[in-house]
Batch of 3 targets.
Target 1
Amino acid sequence: MSRRRKSTPTYRFHKPSSQAVCDFYDPLTGVKRTVCLGHFDSPESRKEHARICAEVAGGRSGHSSGLSMNELMLAYLRFADGYFVKDGRKTDEIDCIKSVIRVVREVYGHTPVAEFGPVLT
């Protein structure tokens, strides 16, 4: 007999990154998702967890509008680790990319990619 899936997204500490993460099953696709929420036990991470709980309970995905900036930057960093290699060694470009991603992640990490862009006046 199979186990029942938890309907409430979990809030937990991710030891390797020292961040809070949330595990939940996307109600639209049924795929398990893990989302980084920020610093563990911070008011911001708790607020983001509550938002995801409300959206999952309402039948919407925590990322119904597509990828978050965190997911996009992680995917790009994985690509860059294999791309910026010369003579079998990573180039200095990786360090530059990581420093930029660190700043963008702190400010815009949970922003949907579709909402990220220049401010038009």
Note: The longest helix spans residues 93-108.
Target 2
Amino acid sequence: MKNFKIIALILIILSIFLEFFVFNNDTKLKNEHPLVSVSTFALYDITKHIAGETISLVNILPFGVDPHNFELTPKLMAEIESSSLILYSGAGLEPWISKITFKHRAIDMSKYVVLRELASDEFEFHKHHDGQCAHNRLDPHYWLDFNNMQKSAVVITKELVKLQPKYEKKYIKNRDTYISMLKRLDENYTKNLSSCRLNTIVLNHNSIGYLAKKYHFHTTSLSGLSPEANPTPNDIKRVFNKIKNDGITTIFYENFVNSKAMKVIAKDAGVTIEVLQPLANITADEAKQNSTYETMMYINLKKLSKAMMCP
């Protein structure tokens, strides 16, 4: 009996030692890769494709979370503050960014791209005041311009090389591959949207202004640039008349935003309603399907082509 107790005690000590060893080994492996935090899906996609497994990537905005109602948790704040590199979208998209103390390098990516200034009619229309207002007259959805995505890929690559020079060749190769993908997307959008029967897209929130500007179509929305604004009866009437007058057969809403008004309009107007993905974030289901910026933008292209009756 005494020998049994001694053996049991030895096994317990060995078990504790093994667990301690495994824990420390895992921690050491994790610490070999610097933490890099990103604030939007587009930045996540670029960084993941260029850096691969050479970093520990912190996705500040979890998949499936509404970007307009996002709140930082203490755990997430700690991860961000301990990151060696923070990449955030900027242009007023993340009001919560002011709550973070940057202990290391933080990059406002909007400083490196070409931002779209709202036209006078867009700005005047934008009378709803909430946390996502664009009072600086700038549209923050710049990742929907493939040229801006290329610029972002170049900047992110430079920052990653500074962080880990030993992977410079790998990063540059992956950057070039990523930029080639973006150029193919641009070519396909240009080809598919060049001669459409309709030239207007109707949606709940004007999140695709960069696409509309680049590929020469118009947008009509319920709430302008403000996704959380409650549409007025005049807003609903204006959109309904646009659908009828232009012969529009498909209208759009986006995930994470209340779609009730758009569904009512679709039913009353007798048109189809579809989801368009502006890619500030993706849903949990899209993440499970390993959706990428490329795959989602091709899905968007297919839907836009159908809605505008492109050949």
Note: The chain has a mean pLDDT of 87.
Target 3
Amino acid sequence: MKRPLQALLARLQFARSFRVVFPGGDELRHGHGEPEFTIRFKTESSVRDCLRRATLGFGERYERGEIDVEGPIGHIGELGAALQRAGLALSPLARLRLLVGYLARRNTLRRARRNVSSHYDVGNDFYALWLDDELNYSCAYFEDPTDSLETAQRGKLDLVCRKLQLQPGMTIVDCGSGWGAFALHAARHYGTRVTGYTISKPQHEYSVARARDLGLDDRVTFVLEDYRHIALDGARYDRFVSIGMFEHVGKDNWPSFFRVLHRAVRPGGLSFVHTIARVVPRAPDPYGERIFPGFRFPTLVDLTGGLQGLGETLHVLDVENLRPHYALTLEHWYERFHRNRERISATWGEPLTRRYELYLACAPAWFRYDGVLVYQLLVAHGFDPAPPLTRRHMVERVDGVRDAWSNGYP
């Protein structure tokens, strides 16, 4: 097993030095100077599995404790991006198995609930240990790299509200409302009425209770239902919002998503889609598919192309790429996760702890080195005869609001 790995490392272009230690004590080194990290294989089968199943083999064996990483585990994400460029790939049999698994996990109405449950229903208490205080599970918006996670997440919510030009009394449908952070923010600070859709029962229960506690249950309604049921009753909204959900609907369902977006908004309204994306098309990472069953990152062409054929009045107003913001967000999440690691392991077990540890530590490398982006897409339903001439309304805050947020909501 040492020889094929040695051949792979020989063509690897990777600036960091590291070493690989095999079960019998033999080792390989890459780079010069002291190793910045060490990958320690504890079983021969774990080495074979990594060569055969790439990231999926590494991730599953790491979860089981058959592989350890000594040093900053985030370097594994950087190494993974470099190995992808060097040609590390799944074996033909592993690719076939992955395809069969992907087809089985497609987000049909029935399967979507199971896919969501496998990740999001770990428990609200679990996510509360490493997300911000409003449980935003999507890219934050850092006006300064020293911003706290809470400040950056509230900054993201307000950025979305400004892009949508929200006004009191407007109606919004939140497609994939999660734990309710956006819906509650829009109702609380902009006087809107929001209907949020989620298919996660723990998220739904949490968001309903949160709206009641804040006295917003007369303006915010959360529905435990699939997004494909939005506006089937003919309801039309002023605004459609989807934050961090589109990447989970699956490629087969992209047309359905855009049809929902189209029918849900009345003429003259706006839609907003915030999603992880890729520069060029690529099949889902096999280990990423284990963590997020049924996901697929679109390209910008996929997003804009999905609007075609739905009417000539539906058009893109604005696109923004928040790529570096997600790397910072993930680093905050990992730091909080690591701070609570002992408690997480004691409550949810070491295999799940190691799964999320690997995911959160390595994911920043997707956005820094591997062509993964975050797009915010603003779509108009009709032609406003007097639209804003600049983006100033999107980027300028009300004086003093940001300082107030640093100590919580005003």
Note: DSSP finds 17 helices and eleven strands in the chain.
